[in-house]
Amino acid sequence: MAGLSRLVLANFRNISSADIALCCSVNLFYGVNGSGKTSVLEAVHMLATGRSFRSRQHQPVIQADAEQLAVFGRLKDGLTIGVEKRRSGPGGRIRINREAAESSSQLAALLPLQLINSDSFSALEGGPGVRRRLLDWTVFHVEQSYLHALKDYQIALRQRNALLRRGKIGSDQLDIWDGRMVIAAVTLDRLREEVFERLGTVTRELLLDLPVSPLQQVSIRYRRGWKQGVDLGEALQASRDADMAVGHTRVGPHRADMVFTVDSQPAQSILSRGQQKMLVCALRTAMARVVSNSRKPPVFLIDDLPAELDDAHQVIFARWVSDCAGQVLVTGIERESTCRPWLSLAAPWNKPSVFHVEHGRISAELDPAPNNEWSE
């Protein structure tokens, strides 16, 4: 089962040092804004992906008077992983059981994550790339062959685009990379479509768990990135002149999307803001359920849930998460309101480990007593 039993931080934003023993269910970090609680989630994210979810560059994450940061984690199965980032230089070191790792994808496979924060709720309003990354995350953790096919496709796509930008080129040169794109695209499209079918089914089941609203009318469709019923090779040929004019490839799996509609209208134009948030919560939970049925249950990182959902929907989401998560790390400003939705669940989810965060210092507290008022 995925999850961390220990998390160690050094020079990570305002946290000079911390050594945290995590429980196997819910770990709750509370404190005022700027105390460092979200930095704990950010550190776990870096440990699992090699990067921050708050900054494209790692330098701002390193404490102001330090030259490097370090994050270390011990997984529930005893495996250790670590990430180091230096202020000078773009890279860093990734270690698995103290041995150098080849890529951050190895970390992702060991510690699958679902991050829920304010940015997560832009999935409907964002561009296709936002939703495509959600689908790709799910396929990556379900199908072992997906990463290889994706890398092959991306190499061929970059080469084709480089040729298109050069202008006057022979068709035989493009034919080579068209062929390689098509081979990789067949696998990508097949795996995406198979996983999407499961993802869509689970998402719709979760939406039926909510009070009656337009959410039960949501339709989810997979758009593969080129015209249905047309071979990608034919689509690339037909688009070649236009591609040369703009200098990039306009059709293919890199244009794929998940389309959400209500009565044939974009879902975001029909649903209220609160309903959109619950749709995203359902989608993220469905992603975790699909993955947990095939591989390790993901770790959920949930940032300030009381600021995003009302009390009733927090309880529903907490219940969804408890059914498919390997572990939860959640933050909030107030201890009581952040604990409340988890206390309504069955053991062990109703006994979170609680940590107070203040000025970068993290202190463990006694577990809160169950509150029967919020029990189901």
UniProtKB/TrEMBL annotation:
It comes from the Bacteria. It is found in: Cytoplasm. GO terms for molecular function: ATP binding; single-stranded DNA binding. ATP binds at residues 31-38. GO terms for biological process: DNA replication; DNA synthesis involved in DNA repair; double-strand break repair; SOS response. Keywords: ATP-binding, Cytoplasm, DNA damage, DNA repair, DNA replication, DNA-binding, Nucleotide-binding, SOS response. The keyword Magnesium does not apply. Residues 4-336 form the RecF/RecN/SMC N-terminal domain. GO terms for cellular component: cytoplasm. Pfam families: SMC_N. The keyword DNA-binding applies. Belongs to the RecF family. The RecF protein is involved in DNA metabolism; it is required for DNA replication and normal SOS inducibility. RecF binds preferentially to single-stranded, linear DNA. It also seems to bind ATP. This is DNA replication and repair protein RecF.
